[in-house]
Design a protein that fits this description.
This protein has about 180 residues and is of the alpha+beta class. The chain contains two helices and nine strands; from the N terminus they run ααβββββββββ. The protein has one domain: Sandwich (Immunoglobulin-like), CATH 2.60.40.
Amino acid sequence: MKYVKVFKWLLVILVIAVMIPAIGCGKKDTSGGQTPTPSPSIAATADTTGLNLSEQPDQAKYNEYLSELYLAVLPIGTEIAWPNGMPTETSVFTIGKDQFCTSITRKKTIPSGSFAMALYDVNTKIYIEPKAVWPVAMDGQGNVMGCEGLDLQVGRYEKKFYIDDVLVGVIPFEVK
């Protein structure tokens, strides 16, 4: 059952990674050639030392590859579509109401087999979704966003992100 969840998540991201550039839903570069400043959200970009996380991400590795990484919500039955169907950043999800979305904005290509994600249950201290490696490259700069059904129990969790087996993001969230 765990492998089905991992496969489903990877399939969703793969489809979205292919479709977003094709339909033009990626973020437009408005930086004027300047390096983007990381978002101040609790997602992997902020100083996480004040948060009670299971482990601390490597900020240098994050800064090398990513400019933004966050979780977002989209109502069940809504598809990602500009401008009215765009997920909203959050750290709280509601069973029976929300889709679970992930947004990743890259500064440069993340090579094939280098990116991975895991899902950690804070209360039980168990990985409900062990680290799953993304099998294809995420080419160039840009945003990839994907949503999936919320298949979790009420509780507190952490979504963990890795590049080259180095933890680059830990995003705490709650399911109600």
